[in-house]
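[09:14] KT: can someone run the structure on this one? pasting the chain below
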Amino acid sequence: MKVYRLKDVQERELVPGGKVRFVHSDAMTLAFWTFEAGSPLPEHAHHHEQILSVVKGVIEFVINGENEIVEAPASIIIPPNAVHSGKCRTDCTIIDAFNPKRQDFAVLDA
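[09:31] RB: done, structure tokens below
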């Protein structure tokens, strides 16, 4: 059994105001984010299916041009290749689950 204690996982600032810790299995990636109020999540898309869970805070989120204000606790399912972006209206804690594994993030931990 492999146990990941998040306090022992390296934290990175990948976007301004957004810090993340990653946990990877062979098939998927979990990302544990903290964002400062006002932090942008730049528009992007990827081939992974993603479930974004807002644990704390309020985020304005856009998927394929559809805008929604999402307040914790809530989750958003983001289909593969969907163009998405967001902006944290408050300090936020977010957990992302990606399938398949985010190799682009995994190489940061290699």
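[09:33] KT: thanks! The beta strands are 12-15, 18-24, 29-35, 40-44, 49-56, 58-63, 66-71, 74-78, 84-88, 92-99.
[09:34] RB: yep, looked fine to me
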